[in-house]
Design the sequence.
């Protein structure tokens, strides 16, 4: 029997099985999670809006349904949270901006609606960088989360509150968003799993956009199994999102197994293992050890080249900021004081881009897609470190410099490919690092299987922060 004091660190898979067997009460689980948030939330600064009464009401309703034999599935009665750029009916959605501090949507986003239909309990809305752009910025007027592994460090952006909340046991899973790495980087910084599925796999209807052609929705969870469970609940075509795909979504969790024998892995070392002063050595060494582990588990690992990666950083930033400026230009002119200093400066910089800049960036993007398509004819997966550095210091200057180093996550937003970050080790100072596995379009199953095999063969995901 799991002790009450340990309930907040149950995984979704573990808790779901206990709830299904009626060995765990959704009401008790939700109460424990809320108590945990109230105890730790002020220190870690993860929630913008906490739904105490609403969450308890949802938990009671879930428990009553399950007692009547109406069990909806593995998320029924599970306390989760949402990054605060997902619209939630009658619950404010701020996107971390003063411009939307009183914004209360009239309907749920597609993701929120699907999680509600799955029976999940919504604990609240989580902190993020303003409009899911830029770095942590005190001038936005919202709290910046602290990293539970070391309170002197942050969790990057933009889904920082989501990663911190899962890592610290303040919710059991979240849905976050990713434009250049905003799911996988914070997940790595906090020793949890971050999964960006294929572009179009999850509807973005009701999600406040940053970049229409780069934005993705995906889960941040404690384990790969939990990511598979959450993805299955939200994946699939949505008539309200014309970019969503009709491709059928399998039972991702049901297809998990520990077997990667014969899987072919390509490693573009020329881009992902650079000898540069802005890339830290420990994340690279940890990734090398992870690659050796994958070989021990039966995968074939080869070095390869994708020359088009050299253009990915410039292309991603021009597209991201250019499309972001298109969305924000009216408010930037009419209400500039509503923005923090970082985003105000970055979006104004984007106003100087020309149509030629944008077109050339899209051409570079298409070349990168062709490069990946060619590589993925030979390889099942591309593997790399998740990020070039570990978690930055909490007191780093606003807009600190994740844009000034190579992005190992951004290429997969450009190409729209499924990519996951899983825990892979710790630095000498105790900060987490991770590896990133990416695969073919809509082949999330292979990506998840490989990540799950590695996860189950290691102990990194079982570590808990020293709170």
Sequence:
């Amino acid at each position: 029997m799991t002790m009450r004091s340990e309930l907040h660190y149950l995984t979704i898979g573990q808790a779901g099985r206990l709830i299904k067997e009626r060995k765990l009460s959704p009401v008790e689980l939700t109460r424990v999670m809320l108590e945990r948030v109230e105890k730790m939330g002020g220190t870690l600064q993860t929630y913008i809006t906490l739904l105490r009464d609403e969450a308890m009401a949802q938990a009671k309703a879930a428990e009553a349904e399950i007692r009547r034999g109406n069990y909806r599935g593995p998320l029924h009665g599970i306390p989760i949270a949402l990054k605060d750029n997902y619209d939630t009916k009658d619950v404010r959605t701020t996107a971390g901006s003063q411009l939307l501090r009183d914004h209360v949507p009239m309907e749920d986003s597609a993701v929120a609606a699907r999680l509600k239909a799955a029976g999940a309990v919504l604990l609240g809305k989580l902190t993020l960088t303003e409009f899911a752009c830029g770095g942590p910025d005190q001038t936005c007027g919202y709290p910046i989360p602290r990293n539970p592994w070391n309170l002197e460090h942050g969790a990057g952006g933009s889904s920082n509150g989501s990663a911190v909340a899962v890592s610290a046991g303040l919710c059991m899973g979240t849905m976050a968003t990713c434009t250049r790495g905003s799911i996988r980087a914070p997940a790595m910084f906090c020793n949890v799993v971050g999964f960006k599925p294929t572009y179009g796999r999850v509807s973005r209807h009701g999600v406040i956009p940053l970049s229409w052609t780069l934005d993705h929705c995906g889960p941040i969870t404690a384990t790969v199994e939990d990511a598979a469970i959450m993805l299955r609940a939200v994946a699939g075509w949505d008539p309200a999102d014309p970019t969503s795909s009709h491709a059928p979504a399998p039972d991702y969790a049901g297809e998990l197994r520990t077997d990667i024998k014969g899987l072919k892995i390509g490693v573009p070392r020329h881009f992902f293992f650079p000898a540069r002063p802005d890339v830290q050595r420990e994340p690279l060494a940890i990734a090398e050890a992870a690659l050796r582990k994958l070989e021990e588990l039966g995968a074939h690992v080869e070095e390869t080249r994708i020359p088009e990666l050299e253009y990915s950083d410039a292309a991603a930033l021009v597209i991201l900021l250019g499309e972001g400026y298109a969305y924000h230009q009216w408010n930037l002119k009419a209400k500039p004081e509503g923005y923090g200093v970082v985003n105000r400066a970055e979006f104004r910089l984007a106003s100087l881009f020309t149509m030629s800049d944008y077109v050339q960036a899209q051409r570079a993007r298409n070349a990168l897609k062709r490069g990946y398509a060619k590589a993925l004819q030979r390889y099942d997966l591309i593997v790399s470190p998740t990020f070039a550095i570990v978690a930055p210091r909490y007191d780093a200057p606003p807009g600190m410099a994740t844009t000034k180093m190579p992005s190992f996550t951004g290429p997969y937003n450009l190409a729209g490919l499924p990519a996951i970050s899983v825990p892979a080790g710790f630095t000498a100072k105790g900060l987490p690092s991770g590896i990133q596995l990416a695969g073919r379009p809509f082949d999330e199953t292979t990506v998840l299987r490989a990540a799950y095999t590695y996860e189950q063969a290691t102990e990194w995901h079982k570590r808990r922060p020293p709170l």
Q: What stands out?
A: Residues 4-462 form a domain with the Amidase signature (AS) enzymes fold (CATH 3.90.1300.10). The chain has a mean pLDDT of 96.
